[in-house]
Amino acid sequence: MKIYNTLTRRKEDFVPIQEGKVGIYVCGPTVYDFIHIGNARPMIVFDTLRRYLEHKGYEVNFVSNFTDIDDKIINRSIQEGIPACEVSEKYIAECKKDMEALNVRPASTHPQATQEIPEMIEMVQTLIDKGHAYEKNGTVYFRVRSFDGYGKLSHKNIDDLESGHRADAHALKVSGEDEKEDSLDFVLWKPKKEGEPFWESPWGEGRPGWHLECSCMSKKYVGDTLDIHAGGEDLIFPHHENEIAQSEATNDKPFANYWMHNGFLKINGDKMSKSLGNFFTVRDICAQYDPQVLRFFMLSAQYRTPLNFSRELIEDSAKGLERILNGAEKLSGIIEKDNKKPVSDEEKKILEEELPKFVQKFDEAMDDDLNTADAVSAIFELIRFTNASTDTESSSAFAQALYDTLSELSEKVLGIKLTRAEEAMDDAFVAKIEELIAERTAAKKEKNFARADEIRAELLGMGIVIEDTREGVKWKKA
């Protein structure tokens, strides 16, 4: 498998630190509101990375944090008149609901920043002891120029960064609001403000800086050196750059061997913004579409490419997903007949010679820097092939073998379920649908076509479309 490494700006063969095992850290959301569809992209993309590595036989330690202390959380707690911890716990729970809807598997560990404060204090003290950090009036700063190689991930030159900071730094120094030795230095620990959550530390009551949190959580739950560190490309600078500086200065080891960053998500060509009225949460979209449509949409492009969200494109994704579901449904119908026929010589030849070609094409796409767009194309080709290769006379065992392959690639690796949303309907509602279909079938046998038409209309009013097929009546959501 080849991975595009942001650090080296090239595709590299993936070789884990420990054979057969992979340690991954993905920066998770700051939990002060419902997650938006921009948050969903890295969640879906790197969940798929994890699934594919497991498909290849790796044991994956997948760690993704929740940032549960931050200025945005504090501001929301003030607005709602509740403690910051209640805000974060509320939205962690809501985030997990959205992740489940999108079929994003829970991480091996979901650390929360507020539960790892002792480790953060210890890292800050180590950095001070090694001369990489210093304290001024309760604030601890990282001494950027003490770390050789700062800027290597973002490929920024430290002198260019200095010139960009100079004017702002001068204004802050004149106002007395900044006591940094260098304008590039960043905060590791900040003193508390009135009404804010705080923790005791050697430098006074305060809380950790955002960059520090991820360095400590990744070290504790993955190790000093990660196989893969991942997140959105907006995190490359300064967040991931600062993580590298802190972690490598502390541990004297490379922080991560591979850096993966997904591209930006735009809305109708514009940056998502509440002021532009184009800000959508996962809940907003899932109220209108099956959550699997959103997952399918996110995987329709290679993860590093910018992705544009629009109604037209999400509708196209809904149609694409429907093609896959229809193909799976056809195979399921043959399997359910359970005709006990032995696999024919022709069917056996297809399973041995033709089917592996589609699996190979899928794996080649995924091995090429997780190219899910081409992997989805391979699944479409598999669907066309299964549709052409099966009919009502096919053996159930043959259909089962085809379905199992489709399920492995679609459900297990891409996380795209082959069951329709209506299968999760209330049991009483499903029973009502089946009752009406049975009544309609009886009415047709009695040549009471007026009643049969009335039932069809009644079902449509319930949001259900029916179709008469040779295998019987099929139904689905309108």
Structure, explained:
With 478 residues, the protein is an alpha/beta fold. α4 (117-129) packs across α6, α10 (311-337) runs parallel beside α12 (372-389) and α12 packs antiparallel against α13. The protein is elongated, with a radius of gyration of 27 Å. Helices cover 50% and strands 15% of the residues. The chain has a 4-stranded parallel sheet, sandwiched between helices. Strands 5-6-7-8 form a 4-stranded antiparallel sheet. It has 15 helices and 15 strands. The model is unreliable at 166-176 (pLDDT under 50).
Features:
four-stranded antiparallel beta sheet; single chain; 15 helices; alpha/beta; 478 residues; four-stranded parallel beta sheet
What's the total count of β strands?
Answer: 15
State the helix count: 15
Radius of gyration: 27 Å
Determine the N-to-C terminus distance.
41 Å
Estimated helix fraction:
40-55%
Strand residue percentage: 5-15%
Summarize the structure.
By secondary structure, this protein is of the alpha/beta class. The protein has helices spanning 37-55, 71-80, 84-101, 117-129, 158-175, 210-221, 236-251, 282-286, 291-298, 311-337, 345-367, 372-389, 396-413, 427-445, 449-461; strands at 2-5, 10-13, 21-26, 59-64, 133-136, 139-142, 186-191, 206-208, 226-232, 256-262, 265-267, 270-271, 307-309, 464-469, 472-477.
Q: Which helices and strands appear, and what pairs or packs with what?
A:
Layout: E1 2-5, E2 10-13, E3 21-26, H1 37-55, E4 59-64, H2 71-80, H3 84-101, H4 117-129, E5 133-136, E6 139-142, H5 158-175, E7 186-191, E8 206-208, H6 210-221, E9 226-232, H7 236-251, E10 256-262, E11 265-267, E12 270-271, H8 282-286, H9 291-298, E13 307-309, H10 311-337, H11 345-367, H12 372-389, H13 396-413, H14 427-445, H15 449-461, E14 464-469, E15 472-477
Parallel strand pairs: 3-4, 3-9, 9-10, 11-13
Antiparallel strand pairs: 1-2, 5-6, 6-7, 7-8, 11-12, 14-15
